[in-house]
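Can anyone check this?
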Amino acid sequence: QVQLVEAGGGSVPPGGPLRLSCAAPGSIFRIGAMAWHRQAPGKQRELVARITNGGNTVYADSVKGRFTISRDNAKNTLYLQMNSLKFEDTAVYYCNAEVVVDTTMRVIRDSWGQGTQVTVSS
């Protein structure tokens, strides 16, 4: 696995914005589709948004119109811009890379970050 490195979590009041980032360190040749997942206490992990290498996106219905996923392929970095945050967005957010090819052409599947806490609280 490639250990993805997430940043940007924290505490924010309802209606506020927050931006998460996820970097893939090391010598990377190419990264396939990437995604953000989240897991709230007592709930299963769920897909929040996914983006292909070419920029095609998919969102969970609960975040459509509020969250935007993007990526910078030159920097091997994934982003999640979250606006109009709600109490129910509180969760640990995880970054996922479905396929990573390093500069030795080694193929690494299903890499995850350590998770970053997002808390929406007044």
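Reply from J.R.: I decoded it. The first strand starts at residue 5 and ends at 7.
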